[in-house]
From TrEMBL:
It is an enzyme of class 2 (transferase). ATP binds at residue 50. Keywords: ATP-binding, Kinase, Manganese, Nucleotide-binding, Serine/threonine-protein kinase, Transferase. InterPro entries: Kinase-like_dom_sf, NAF/FISL_domain, NAF_dom, Prot_kinase_dom, Protein_kinase_ATP_BS, Ser/Thr_kinase_AS. Its EC number is 2.7.11.1. The lineage of its organism: Eukaryota, Viridiplantae, Streptophyta, Embryophyta, Tracheophyta. It comes from Populus euphratica. Belongs to the protein kinase superfamily. CAMK Ser/Thr protein kinase family. SNF1 subfamily. This is non-specific serine/threonine protein kinase.
Amino acid sequence: MEVVGETPPASAGEVNLLGKYELGKLLGYGAFAKVYHARNVSTGQSVAIKAVSKAKVMKGGFVAHVKREISIMSRLRHAHIVRLHEVLATKGKVYFVMEYAKGGELFTRISKGRFSEDLSRRYFQQLITAVGYCHARGVFHRDLKPENLLLDENFNLKITDFGLSAVTDQVRPDGLLHTLCGTPAYVAPELLAKKGYDGAKVDIWSCGVVLFVLIAGYLPFNDTNLMAMYRKIYKGQYRCPKWTSPELKRLLSRLLDANPDTRITIDMIINDPWFKKGFKEEKNLYLDEFDFDKGFEEDEDEKSLNAFDIISFSSGYDLSRMFNESDTMILTERFVSAEKPEKVMERIEEVARKEGLEIAKRKNWGAKLEGWNGNFIMIIEVHRLTDHLVMIEVKEKKFKMGPGQETWEDKLKPQLRSLIYQPEQAVSGN
């Protein structure tokens, strides 16, 4: 992480987090987050925990960034991407519990001296397989740099920090992204033009800068004057060090092509002669280590949710209420049931009518309830988790003033408790 603002303490001490993790030493910190080494109390597993200050995030206007990072990281399962295990929240902080990369930042290693061409190629191959995986799933990192590339205990590369990432639903009708972001020395020329850009092409440019840094030990575009550096980037003006092989020079020229339309693509990179050297063995290793998320591209209505989805629907992991400070709050509660969706909806409608609530809208597995002259609004939806379990999601529009505030908690919820799945009952056979 970048060092911004406050000076970190020498040690975080051993702090127990919600009875699950013991926080250890501080690994790094930024504008509104600190990253600690931690230990899972139950398993002894080492993890990294990113503690995000809600107050600082809200003050800085970065709520959407945090939500997006959680959403994106929860979807990515790749051998060369840092894994997000779970997310915890307290009144003041949000905690990302992540895979611990024992080897630290790639930046730390490269700052001690440039890499050999073979080692540079190995890391570049790992980087490109991970970036290609992201792009195939509509995720663009937009801030690839050595500081955001970590190393595990075997010194394999891991991409982290998806806070500036974009997904395909942020693409405008012209097919391009328009948000300016990234780190100055790594930004693509089209970002400087302040026009729309292709997120995949921007990532490929940054991968080119990373490769140059690995082989050279310094940045391709660097100047004490920021505008002078931007002019070099915009024109694609750089010089390869004399020890660069002709094959690598050709690849760098295609990666650092100032014209995004003619810049090399992921598929072209993988077929490049310099890149392909030794890649077959690495690719096989990657496939053996990585279990593809086969359900990722299934239709939303048909798929069963994976383990992370179930965790994310549990209490304490509600992003919609995590940062809400408006005059009305959307309070969300979710619980699991072993009843069939149709039976769930029948029971909900029965209880709603009993309490004098109007069913304003109805769909197969969902309903919108209204009452108290518009001061009470609730949406209930049923999602299938497995063949035998469903998740019931209740969203209540909570008005700070006015009647109807306790309708769900005091009147509806107690009458629906029989729907809630009790694992111990299932085990005992009751």
